[in-house]
Amino acid sequence: MFQVDIDFEKEPVGIGKDGRSVYLKDIWPSNKEIAEVVQSSVLPEMFKSTYEAITQGNPFWNQLSVPSSSIYAWDPNSTYIHQPPYFKGMSMDPPGPHGVKDAFCLLNFGDSITTDHISPAGSIHKDSPAAKYLMEHGVQRRDFNSYGSRRGNDEVMTRGTFANIRIVNKLLNGEVGPKTIHIPTGEKLYVYDAAMRYKSEGHDTIVVAGAEYGSGSSRDWAAKGPMLLGVKAVIAKSFERIHRSNLVGMGLIPLSFKHGEDAETLGLTGHECYTIDLPQKISDIRPGQDVAVTTDSGKSFICTLRFDTEVELTYFEHGGILPYVIRNLTKQ
Which residues form the Aconitase A/isopropylmalate dehydratase small subunit swivel domain (predicted)? Predict the structure, then answer.
């Protein structure tokens, strides 16, 4: 049996041959002893021989074909690495702030939806949109691998967003799983398929949630995935601190219900269309200001705009932190 709760200053670590207690301080080397070992064992030749061969590689490395271009050559056939669309159609001028008009609710959640619920993780289910994509690209089921191994392919990861088999979406009336209702038709679809349907129809989408939305470990795809699905805003009772910041970084609008209010108290079912009014000039928006949200069912309520700093407003003006960084780099 091993003991780990030892007070090394007062308790011995063992008994010597003479029967006396031996403490850690009795066997711990001094700085002088350590320096002497380093001087005798860590020799300059070790570093010279290593760094002299560092550019030589090995036969396998040296046989790799190296493109002459300084820009990475994306392979359109790769199912592991794919050029993400974060800068597709980006102009050098910030697009400015935007509200949301007549957006459908993609998902209606209760409390404690974690980043593990949102972010693609684990194995790729055989019937999922990600599996369908891989099979269409010639990948056999035995070679699906995991979402983690394919996190460099946005096509796979977007399809895996909200694909957790234990996710609870109120639009499904108690059914657990990665599907939702396409509100205009009432059709039950995988979340990805519903999101693409809305996109093709020209509709924005939002997510409605309860308390502590995005709790758990910080995961970048928990924010990137919803953005690529076309989600424009998240209305929640409260947000996990880092996830709220990540949503802002991807250009999404985080809104908090007022204290004592949520979707249920306001009588929201998620079948409504939502309009979020924001000023057209970024200078007219303040961190934490009140924002009106109206629905096509006639309900109207006030939320707190969770852009918490002026810097976050700047990110929003640029459409997210990535376009903001690129635009600033080009000015240098």
Answer: 131-259
pLDDT band at 218 (very low <50, low <70, confident <90, very high): confident
Residue 5 counted as domain residue: no
Region of residue 304 (left: phi > 0; alpha: psi -120 to 50; beta: else): beta
- Residue 2 identity: F
DSSP 199-240: HHTT--EEEE--TTBTBSS--THHHHHHHHHTEEEEEES-B-
pLDDT at residue 104 tops 90: yes
Domain that holds residue 27: 14-59
What stretches of 111-215 show up as alpha helix (H) in DSSP? 115-118, 129-136, 154-160, 191-200
Q: Assess whether 179 and 303 both reside in one domain.
A: yes
In angstroms, the CA 194 to CA 196 distance is 5
Residue 82 lies in a domain: no
| Structural domain total, the chain | 2
Residue 137 included in any domain: no
- Range of weakest confidence among 64-78, 231-245, 248-262, 274-288: 64-78
Q: Are residues 201 and 268 in the same domain?
A: yes
Burial of 174 (0-12, 13-18, 19+ CB in 10 A): exposed
pLDDT in tens, 249-283: 999 999 999 999 999 999 999 999 999 999 999 99
**Cβ contacts of 57 within 8 Å, gap of 6 or more:** none
Are 53 and 191 within one domain?
no
CA 177 → CA 41, 168, 188, 227, 240, distances in Å?
A: 59, 6, 11, 21, 23
pTM exceeds 0.70, yes or no: yes
Q: Which of 242, 104, 221, 102 has the alpha carbon at shortest distance from 154?
A: 221
